[in-house]
Specification:
The protein is of the alpha/beta class. It has one domain: Rossmann fold. It is 24% helix and 29% strand. Bound molecules: inosinic acid and magnesium ion. The site of inosinic acid has 18 residues, from β5, α3 and β8.
Length: 180
């Protein structure tokens, strides 16, 4: 069972559903008359983007990128490797990058610098979770679900060593699971 490794649930499925609906309403307003391209940064954000896109009621396109930064551990290395790139041209598109969590900000800043070179019409970021206390790069999301404390979180797509993604809500992982 996954439950034995969980310290506590921070956000239940319905907490998240409510917040996702708020964010979707903002996106509907901000992008009225446009058709943004949502880019899910795999793998952590796939559940968030799946829920978010269904709460949005303007036309959207989706695509996926995969970058690795954390490997199997709990600390960002600061290195970002593109494991899977987008298949289509971004030129002239309004892109909205969907992230699971903004931690140090390194992954996102590298990714945004890369995508900016492809000349999108606009680029914004939607992050389910934000750990501002951990930021080392001056970067923020345009839309944020929840600010969270400096603890290691899993569930709703977020993993530790590829586990716990299937927990329905966001939970704090017990320190003894990842402390070495
Ligand atoms: P950053 O480059 O330090 O901002 O790291 C961002 C990425 O690290 C996220 O997209 C996650 O994949 C991962 N990450 C950061 N904090 C957590 C966490 O608490 N739980 C699970 N993954 C995390
Ligand atoms: Mg991620």
């Amino acid at each position: 069972m996954l439950d034995k490794d969980i310290d506590r649930i921070l956000f239940s499925q319905s907490d998240i559903e409510n917040r996702v609906a708020d964010i979707a309403a903002e996106i509907n307003r901000d992008y009225a008359g446009k058709s943004p391209l949502l880019i899910s940064v795999l793998r952590g954000s796939f559940i968030f983007m799946a829920d978010l896109m269904r709460a949005i009621d303007i036309p959207v396109q989706i695509d996926f990128m995969a970058v690795s930064s954390y490997g199997q551990g709990a600390q960002s290395t600061g290195m970002v490797r593109i494991d899977k790139d987008i298949d289509i041209s971004l030129a002239g598109k309004h892109i909205l990058i969907a992230e699971d969590i903004l931690d140090s900000g390194k992954t996102l800043s590298h990714l945004m610098a890369l995508l900016a070179t492809r000349e999108p019409a606009s680029m914004r970021v939607v992050a389910l979770l934000d750990k501002p206390s951990r930021r080392t790069v001056d970067i923020r999301a345009d839309y944020t679900g929840f600010e969270v404390p400096d603890e290691f979180l899993v569930g709703y797509g977020l993993d530790y060593a590829e586990r716990y993604r299937n927990l329905p809500g966001v939970a704090v992982l017990k320190r003894e699971v990842y402390a070495t």
